[in-house]
Amino acid sequence: MANILRYKLFVALAAVFLVATACSDPVFPTVSPPPTVTPVAPTPTPTPIDTTSPDPVEETVTEPGLTSDTMRIAVIADGENLSINDGESESIWQAVEAWANAVNQTTKLAGRTIEVERIDSAVSRHAEAMEQVCSGDYFALIGSAAINDSEGLSLLLSPDCGLPDFPAFIYSAQRLNSEITFVSNPAYSQITNAGWAAYFTRENPNGVERAATMFPELSPLVLGGNQTIEAATAMGYRFIHSPIYNFETDFSTEAESLIESGGRSLTWRNSATQLASFLQAINEVDPEFQFDFIDCGQNCYNSKWPTAAEGLGEGVSVWLPHLPIEEAELSDELLRYLFYLLSTHGSEGTTSAAGVAAWSAGLLFEEAVARAVGLDSAAYDPDSLTRETVIQAAKTINFWDANGLHGVSNPSERIPSPCFVVVTLLDGVWKRSYPSRPGELDCEESNLVTLAALQGLTQEEPPRENPE
User: Fold this and answer.
1) What is the pTM of this model?
2) pLDDT tens for residues 275-291?
3) CA-to-CA distance for 118 and 155, rounded, in angstroms?
4) Do 218 and 81 share a structural domain?
5) Enclosing domain of residue 272
6) Angle at 226 between CA 258 and CA 293, to 5 degrees
7) First to last CA, the chain
8) Does residue 84 belong to any structural domain of this protein?
9) What's the rounded Cα separation, in Å, for the pair 216 and 214?
10) Which residues of the chain have pLDDT under 50?
């Protein structure tokens, strides 16, 4: 419309100009005689100018993984291992790639497109994965999640590496206490969210009075199990059965032992696939046995497990620090995660709690980069971006909700949001159990518990043998 108005104005002015000149006497310019030319010596013929394109100047790289146009990041995750995990790595890798796609299609990051590299730590090879990252061409670690995440930590913290580290989850206190590690919502930290335990205590006091849990024989998972016991006990649980099981078990012995213990509820923080195997073993030992409730943390919350469990998951509950994906229409950021996951990976995209955590890790890194370069300010300078400026910027992020994805957390001081929701698998579909109103989270500050089990754990843990 503006172009049309300008064109009409131009035409009108031109018409006025033509009319004015047509009605007046013609004006002839006065021409002065040319100046006298004094002969001069002939000028030497200049050397022909080389018009060929010069060789391109190679860009000087001051930061690994960073050019003026691109940023390379790595994601370390444990590949599928049915004895230990459910292949959450695929959902994590997909989520980070979806986040990078969202950034590349919209604002870019400090004027750069993001390139994502998947790195498989295969449970027992995290130190090797860390060596690959530190010696490779990467700017940062984003969305990682690996059980033995303390292995190789000394290399990550060394002056020769020092990558900004924004994991989806952490398993070790050593990684948690790293000065260059920042988690969007560190739900499993020294200060942890135990609101789920308070909920089950209110809803089923008899079940929590005779609670059972189990840990696989891997140190980080045993430590995590002890954290869970401590947090739940602070909210009223009494655990009467908490054995450590072998990875190669068929769960028949463990099923008999639990039934004999008189346990009435099950708190599970391990592989969701292993939970289904355990429940199958219990059904074979005593088809009449039933728990008052089963809490699977966030492990069971992925789009594939309800079908894969073949009915064994019916009645299993999970707690989430964000709205369930089934209510994505009530959360703009959750919708963005789903949209870009679909546009990036199509029908192969797998939604999960781990994927949402990886997406939020990308958002936190994005915020740190924005602060490092002074985005939306007169001091904006994308060329000033370095690993160190990102780390220093991340240390200033102490009020953060990942664009409304989760409740307010404090990543710089490793304090999680107190918010949570409980959903239960009913008729093969995850349905809200608490709070009852769609779109609502329980965000009481009393949901946070300080754990003694993590105090003083700062040194790198020794390497572990391959559980296979």
Assistant:
1) 0.85
2) 999 999 999 999 999 99
3) 19
4) no
5) 191-323+419-450
6) 45
7) 69
8) yes
9) 7
10) 1-47, 49, 57, 456-468
